[in-house]
Write a structure and sequence with these properties.
The chain is an alpha/beta fold. It has eight helices and six strands; from the N terminus they run βααβααβαβαβαβα.
């Protein structure tokens, strides 16, 4: 999975520039490269777009219509290059997931392969509530695009939810291996190993 961020575009509002085709040469180079690969490639673009304080591609910077236009343009460029092996992950930040807040930024079922959100052991993240929002509105498999936890108890609760079959649409998670969440920390690594030993992560789990 590649997290692809719209930094360095030389524009204050990069999504409008992307939607207008100003970076098509760059996009086409990526698309042609992806099309030659035999593997499935997951691309997570414009992640955490509902976080108004962090990124120039946020909804507060450009608005949902421009966000959707930029997203669709990127996907269309890849499809025109024959990159049918690419899967697109739509991934808000998990501490602002409400139906009213993110629905207008959904590019459409034809442009999204996986839903997702980022989560951590800080109190702002409610995985059960986020799952319900996603499940109610869209009918897509899900990915936890960033998971970070320095508290084994929190991770044990997440593992119980996933391995207990209470979030069956979640098909993958990506560990945010940075700082206090690093797998170099023995207590974090032990909790992750325990989670991965469960049935949700076994070979029979659908991919």
């Amino acid at each position: 999975m590649i997290t692809w961020e719209a930094w360095g575009c030389g524009a204050r509002f990069p999504l409008a520039e992307i939607a207008a085709g100003h970076y098509d040469t760059y996009l086409e180079s990526w698309a042609r490269g992806a099309a030659t690969d035999r593997h499935q490639i997951w691309i997570r673009i414009f992640h955490e777009f509902n976080d108004s304080q962090t990124y120039p591609w946020s909804l507060s910077a450009s608005g949902p219509a421009t966000f959707v236009a930029a997203w669709r343009h990127v996907v269309d460029v890849f499809r025109a290059a024959g990159a049918d092996n690419v899967r697109w992950i739509w991934n808000p930040d998990g501490d602002h997931v409400t139906q009213a807040g993110i629905r207008s930024a959904y590019p459409g079922d034809a442009y999204v392969d996986y839903l997702g959100w980022d989560t951590s052991s800080t109190p702002a993240y409610d995985n059960a509530a986020n799952y319900r929002v996603m499940e109610r509105v869209w009918h897509k498999p899900m990915v936890l695009g960033e998971v970070g936890a320095s508290e084994p108890g929190w991770l044990d609760r997440l593992a119980a939810r996933l391995n207990g079959g209470r979030a069956p649409r979640i098909r993958a998670l990506v560990w945010f291996d940075v700082g206090p969440d690093s797998l170099d920390r023995p207590h974090v690594a032990a909790a992750v190993r325990s989670m991965l030993a469960g049935p949700a992560f076994g070979p029979a789990h659908p991919s």
